[in-house]
Amino acid sequence: MNGIKRIKRIKRIRIHREGTDSLVWGGICIVAVALLLWRWIPSQVPFWIFVLVAGFVYGVVVNFFRCPIRKCPLTATENIVVAPADGRVVVIEEVDDCPCLGDRRLMISIFMSLFNVHANWFPVDGRVVSVEHINGNFHKAWLPKASEENEHTDVVIELDNGERVVCRQVAGAMARRIVTYAEADEDCYIDEHMGFIKFGSRVDVFLPVGTEVCVEMGQATVGDQTVIARLK
């Protein structure tokens, strides 16, 4: 019975499409260099050191691009805000000038380390109003100024009741590419991928003031699974 459960669990893990090219070309390069070392360097020590180091790095990259198939455990998602990413809560505070909306909002930020899944999910059900990409710097993602100064993409989502939520993908010191699948005027739902950020970053969610916060500072989150807030 445990064997069957394990097989099912493995089937629900896949590699994200954003990592296909990186993994294929990375694997080819590793094999090519390993063959050159094996053929041209008499001592076998450098060869085995390279194999061990390259294998470890490649394993980290494979782990980074894994894309688990998830479904929100809640049957009713109205007024529910789920974590848009795996990671750890680094900010829970009210801000005066919300991006795209310009009013006072509650901001919840989730930092993703190199070892987290980097797929991003829609935090709420609704309709995508706008998608805007802004070029910027590449500060460390957990710093407060990263949200405003770093390269980022803002996705504005309107709920059925007319309330709007902003989800911001923020590039980090190592993250140099933000991928956003959200498109304006399209319906979006919890369980759907909003995008992907490569190699370390954060996601900010801007909610109406008075929203009930369901997480704490430093708490680990699981994308599309952890309820981070409840809207009034």
Please, could you describe this protein's structure?
- By secondary structure, this protein is an alpha+beta fold.
- The longest helix is centred in the N-terminal third of the chain and has 21 residues, at 20-40.
- The protein is built from four helices and 16 strands.
- 32% of the residues are buried.
- Helix 2 (20-40) runs antiparallel to helix 3 (45-64).
- The protein has helices at residues 2-11, 20-40, 45-64, 146-149; strands spanning 13-15, 66-68, 80-82, 87-95, 105-112, 119-121, 126-134, 152-158, 164-171, 178-180, 187-188, 193-197, 201-208, 212-213, 220-221, 227-230.
Radius of gyration: 20 Å
Structure summary, number of beta strands: 16
Identify the strand order in the major beta sheet. Answer: 11-7-8-9-13-5-4-15
Helix content: 10-25%
The gross shape turns out to be elongated
Structural class: alpha+beta
Beta-strand content: 25-35%
Termini separation (Å)?
Answer: 43 Å
Descriptive keywords:
disordered N terminus; 3-stranded antiparallel β-sheet; 34% strand; 232 residues; single chain
In summary, what is this structure?
The chain has helices at residues 2-11, 20-40, 45-64, 146-149, and strands spanning 13-15, 66-68, 80-82, 87-95, 105-112, 119-121, 126-134, 152-158, 164-171, 178-180, 187-188, 193-197, 201-208, 212-213, 220-221, 227-230. With 232 residues, it is an alpha+beta fold.
Write the layout of secondary structure elements.
Blueprint lengths: L1 H10 L1 E3 L4 H21 L4 H20 L1 E3 L11 E3 L4 E9 L9 E8 L6 E3 L4 E9 L11 H4 L2 E7 L5 E8 L6 E3 L6 E2 L4 E5 L3 E8 L3 E2 L6 E2 L5 E4 L2
Antiparallel strand pairs: 1-2, 3-16, 4-5, 4-15, 5-13, 6-12, 7-8, 7-11, 8-9, 9-13, 10-12, 14-16
